[in-house]
Amino acid sequence: ALGRSRGGFGTNIHLVTDANRLPLAVVLTGGQRQECTQFERVMDAVRVPNRRGRPRRRPCAVAGDRGYSYRHIRAWLRRHGVRAVIPYRRDQHPDDGRHRFD
Fold it and tell me: Is 0.85 topped by the overall pTM?
């Protein structure tokens, strides 16, 4: 999982954690790979064991940085009933009354 990016030769770690910062899923990619391309892959790897029954696969909310502020990610979250806590990029202008992050 090594690749060349603007910062040099490196690796991206795409990580999902719970509220207590315990890792739930990890995907490693080369440094040139963007976060948005691996979002669905890392979210599909999440398995939270329950006391009974199947493991839970979807969180209640997802918090991410501006690297995850894309229409297809927000659409995926809406389709799966997950609340997005992701700030908008500078080139995006939410005019629908949603909260703007400073």
Answer: no
